[in-house]
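for the record, two folds in this file. i put them one after another cuz i was lazy. first one right below, seq on top, structure tokens after. the second one comes after a little note so u can tell where it starts
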Amino acid sequence: MNKVFAITCHKITNPLVHTVRYLSSFEENIVLVHVDKKANIQDFIVLKNNNVHLIPNRIEVTWGHITQIISVIELMRFSLRFNYEFFFLLSGDDIPIKNNNKINTFLEHFFDYNFIHYQDLVTKYINPEDRVRYNYPKFFYFREKTVITKAKKLFVYRFKNIFFRNKEFYRIKNKIPRMYKGTNWFTLKKDTVKYVINYIEKNEWYLDLFNKSICGDEVFFHTIIKTNNKLKIFSDNKYPHKALRYIDWYTGPQYPKVLKEEDKQRMISSNNLFARKIDENATKDFMECFLY
């Protein structure tokens, strides 16, 4: 089963090295790595292999910003030069929790499907349009939660319909497809990746629409895929997370939780293929225990 694993990252961590080395140990797999332009590329040369490629078009990525979307587009475009059936989007905080053989068996069973998770009744509903119909100021992309930043955000939320409306959104609203939101880590068929890239190239206005969005990567790709009802989306009640990722948004103290040894049994019993976020100093024994 030919697979592309596309990883977006900004620093060398134990999970990143483990994931790249394990997945690339199988000739059928291609690993593509987008390294944030802010990082020193020399730190990542250690990852290179015959089937591991550090993609050349690097983006300076900011959390929550359109640059997150653009980095994924670059990975998708680069992937199209290879022969594969499935494209996995991963972060540098992900590890496989099923071995390569089990991943292949699962994909063979559901070969025609895309694995992408759309928001459901388990979590509080967020209107996807709210991510793009306002022009979010730069301080929305700051991860630090200072009192001043919180006060500024409160002002924006209170007066967003007066001062922060995205005029372009309302100008072209009639041609904007219905928007959808979900988890920004997914597994797609190659034909779906081609469709996404083709849609972006034929509709240049669509990417521009997300220029001042917030966390638009949770809307951008999900919406495009829903414009084509011929693309099959996996749905099975035995798998609550349709992208087959184990992510703990509930127990804390971080959200999502940084996964450690104490989470091992829940990760194993989840039936997912990958897990995140893994502690950057995770031990080899912990990360390898899922691969037997």
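(here's the note) second protein begins now
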Amino acid sequence: MAEGTPTEIRHDWSQIVTPFVPRLADLIEDTSQRAASEFEIYLLDRLYGKTTDCWLDNFEFFAAEYLTELVGAVSAFGKDVKLRFLSDEDRRTAAVAGFPIVKEGAKGILELLSQLDREYVGGWKTSGPASVYGKLFPV
């Protein structure tokens, strides 16, 4: 949301996008293209109803996307990552890092938790699971 957007139109997409319509061709020209990641392809397959043998199929679409991004953010940026401060590119990096972990199901997630456990260095005052697993603890 652009800073200074009036409160009364923050949820009206048509009013927010209207100023950009005349510049749309220039905006498109200035974009770069990249190949879809394995995770993006997986999500598209789910949207199109293709069956996969992925552990994430056990979850609703939004939960599969969020879990992958969360696990990947912890893996790529550390256990105390603040998801709301990640850029779009960082979120893509997180999803790319998380997909190989979560598509394996419990095996992949347990490997990440074991890694966090091995890396943990703390004192007796900070030895709880939130200190060890960070953002993954409440999940």
